[in-house]
């Protein structure tokens, strides 16, 4: 009888340990998913800073010539520019009508995607302010962004100014 009681106590202790390990495993799995999502979000937050020089080039071209450049007339006379960072080389392509399409590979996953920026202006006013609309964000009322949005990242991963339903904030 005594041996049986010892075996039962060992079994209960082993079961307790296994349940605790299972609970820890579930918590770690949930936390790891949130951590990866947060890292992806941080990577996408860098994009506005990486493309800011090209946005300034477009703005200066428009201020000088009164119109947007064609694909061959922007950013050191090239329609595509590579930006080097810790992930490697990322490509920025000008898509006509002042639309920038930033292609990047994410460090957190093996996925690559595109985040688009479109210049929005007041129609018929060559000296109007320029608002850069990114991702799925709607164009501010009274402005028009003729460039196409080629964003492929999920809305939830984008920086808040680039999400659907939020107003654009970057203004020049």
From TrEMBL:
This is Type II secretory pathway pseudopilin PulG. The keyword Transmembrane helix applies. Residues 69-88 are annotated as: Disordered. One of its GO terms (cellular component) is pilus. Belongs to the N-Me-Phe pilin family. Keywords: Membrane, Transmembrane, Transmembrane helix. The chain crosses the membrane at residues 12-32. Gene3D superfamilies: Glycoprotein, Type 4 Pilin. It holds the Pfam family Pilin. The keyword Acetylation does not apply. InterPro entries: Pilin (IPR001082), Pilin-like (IPR045584). Coiled coil: none annotated.
């Amino acid at each position: 009888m005594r041996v049986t009681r010892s075996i039962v106590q060992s079994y209960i202790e082993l079961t307790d340990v296994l349940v605790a390990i299972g609970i820890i495993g579930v918590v770690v799995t949930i936390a790891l998913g949130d951590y990866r999502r947060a890292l992806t979000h941080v990577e996408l937050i860098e994009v506005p800073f990486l493309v800011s020089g090209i946005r300034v080039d477009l703005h200066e071209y428009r201020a000088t010539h009164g119109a947007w450049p064609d694909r061959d007339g922007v950013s050191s006379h090239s329609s595509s520019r590579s930006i080097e960072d810790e992930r490697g080389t990322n490509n920025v392509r000008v898509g006509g009508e002042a639309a920038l399409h930033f292609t990047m590979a994410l460090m957190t996953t093996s996925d690559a995607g595109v985040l688009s920026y479109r210049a929005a202006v007041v129609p018929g006013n060559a000296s109007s302010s320029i608002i850069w609309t990114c991702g799925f964000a709607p164009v501010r009322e009274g402005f028009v962004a003729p460039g196409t949005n080629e964003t492929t990242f999920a809305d939830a991963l984008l920086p808040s100014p680039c999400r659907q339903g939020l107003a654009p904030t970057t203004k020049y």
